[in-house]
Specification:
Blueprint (H helix, E strand, L loop, with lengths): L6 H51 L6 E2 L14 E24 L2 E5 L2 E4 L2 E23 L2 E5 L4 E5 L3 E5 L6 E6 L6 E4 L5 E6 L2 E6 L2 H16 L26 E5 L5 E10 L2 E5 L2 E4 L2 E6 L4 E5 L4 E3 L12
Parallel strand pairs: 1-2
Antiparallel strand pairs: 2-5, 2-10, 3-4, 5-6, 6-7, 8-9, 9-10, 11-12, 13-14, 13-19, 14-17, 15-16, 17-18
Length: about 325
C-alpha cells in the first residue's frame, strides 16, 4: 500500500506552522525593538528637559537650531533662537454639507410613468476641519515667530502670542494670536533632532513640543525683561564673604574650562596652608566639583565657586 499521498499535506502543515512561528517571533522582536526605541527617546527627552531647566535657572536663553534658517532680513538687534525645518502649517477650515429632501404626492400618468408634485427642501450643516496648508520652516527669534513656506509666510511678533498648547501631542503646537479668531497650528517632523548647546557641548534630542513651547515662552519672557538674560557666569570681581563655608555636598556654580559657570556639587575639599599670619594659618583651600551633567573638575579656588543652595538638583524620575 502506498502512503506517499499523505506526506505532501503533512509537509505543507509543517511548513505552515514554521512560517506562523517565524512570523510571530518577528512580530515580538519588532515590538521589543519599538519599546526599547521609545524608552531611549524618553530618556533623551528627560536629559534635554533637565538641561533646559538648568539653562533657565541660570537665565541663559534656550536655542534649538535644527536646520538651516531661511534667508530673511532680521530687524535691528534681532537674533535667531530656534529653527525647525519640515514643519507643516495647519489651519482650521469650515466644511459645509448640504442635505436635501423632497416631499409631496405623486400621480401615475402612464404605465411606469409617475409625476410628483411637491417642494424640495434641505439643511446646510458646517463643521470645522484642520487641513495642511503648507510645509516649510518655523523660526523663532528674540522678537518674532516666523513661518516660511512656498505658499504661505507668517510673521508674528512675540507680544501677539496669547496662548500656546501642545494639545497632548509631542510634535504639535497650537498658537492663539492677538487679533485673530482662528488658531495657527504647526506639526513638526517626528524624525527631527533638536540640536542645542549645554556646558560647551553640542547635544541633541528628538523633537518634543514641550521643549518648543518652553523656548517660545522664555523668548517672550526675555522680550519683556531683556535685562534678565545673562551668560551664566558670576561677576568676575565677585569676592566671597569671609564667613562662607564650602564643604563636601555643597551645591555650587563652578567655573568650567570655557570660563562659564555651571551647577554641580563639591566632591572633595583639599585644605592647603599657604602662610602663617599673626600666629594663624592662612588657607587657600582647593575644591573638586562634580557637575550635574557628569563632568568633573579638580583644584578650583574659592573665587571660582558660588553657593547654589537654593537650586535643587533636578531628578529625571519626577517627570
Amino acid at each position: 500500500m502506498n502512503d506517499s499521498s499523505g506526506i505532501g499535506p503533512l509537509i505543507f502543515l509543517l511548513l505552515l506552522g514554521a512560517g506562523v512561528f517565524y512570523f510571530i517571533k518577528l512580530q515580538k522582536q519588532q515590538q521589543q525593538h519599538n519599546l526599547l526605541k521609545e524608552a531611549a527617546r524618553k530618556q533623551e527627552w528627560r536629559v534635554a528637559f533637565d538641561h533646559v531647566k538648568d539653562l533657565l535657572e541660570r537665565r541663559i536663553q534656550v536655542k534649538f537650531i535644527c536646520g538651516e534658517a531661511p534667508n530673511l532680513e532680521l530687524e535691528n538687534g534681532e537674533g535667531i533662537l530656534c529653527v525647525y525645518p519640515k514643519t507643516t502649517l495647519i489651519e482650521p477650515r469650515a466644511i459645509r454639507n448640504w442635505r436635501s429632501s423632497y416631499g409631496g404626492p405623486s400621480f401615475r400618468v402612464a404605465k411606469g410613468v409617475s409625476f410628483r408634485v411637491g417642494v424640495s427642501s434641505g439643511t446646510s450643516e458646517s463643521h470645522e476641519e484642520r487641513r495642511a496648508i503648507d510645509s516649510g520652516t518655523l523660526m523663532l527669534t528674540n522678537q518674532r515667530l516666523i513661518f516660511v513656506g512656498p505658499e504661505r509666510t507668517i510673521c508674528v511678533p512675540l507680544e501677539n502670542i496669547i496662548d500656546i498648547d501642545d494639545e497632548g501631542y509631542n510634535n504639535w503646537i497650537r498658537l492663539n494670536l492677538k487679533g485673530r479668531q482662528k488658531a495657527e497650528c504647526f506639526q513638526f517632523n517626528s524624525g527631527l533632532q533638536m540640536n542645542y548647546e549645554y556646558n560647551g557641548k553640542n547635544l541633541s534630542a528628538p523633537i518634543h513640543s514641550g521643549l518648543v513651547i518652553i523656548a517660545i515662552e522664555e523668548a517672550i519672557n526675555f522680550r519683556h525683561h531683556p535685562e534678565a538674560v545673562t551668560s551664566g557666569a558670576p561677576d568676575d570681581e565677585w569676592d566671597p564673604p569671609d564667613d562662607m563655608i564650602l564643604e563636601v555636598g555643597t551645591r555650587v556654580k563652578a567655573k568650567w574650562h570655557d570660563g562659564e559657570y555651571y551647577p554641580g556639587i563639591i566632591a572633595r575639599v583639599i585644605e592647603k596652608v599657604i602662610e602663617k599670619k599673626d600666629g594663624y594659618d592662612q588657607y587657600d583651600d582647593r575644591y573638586d566639583v562634580n557637575f550635574d551633567d557628569g563632568d568633573k573638575i579638580k583644584g578650583l579656588s574659592i573665587r571660582e565657586l558660588q553657593p547654589l543652595a537654593s537650586v535643587p538638583r533636578s531628578d529625571p524620575e519626577e517627570k
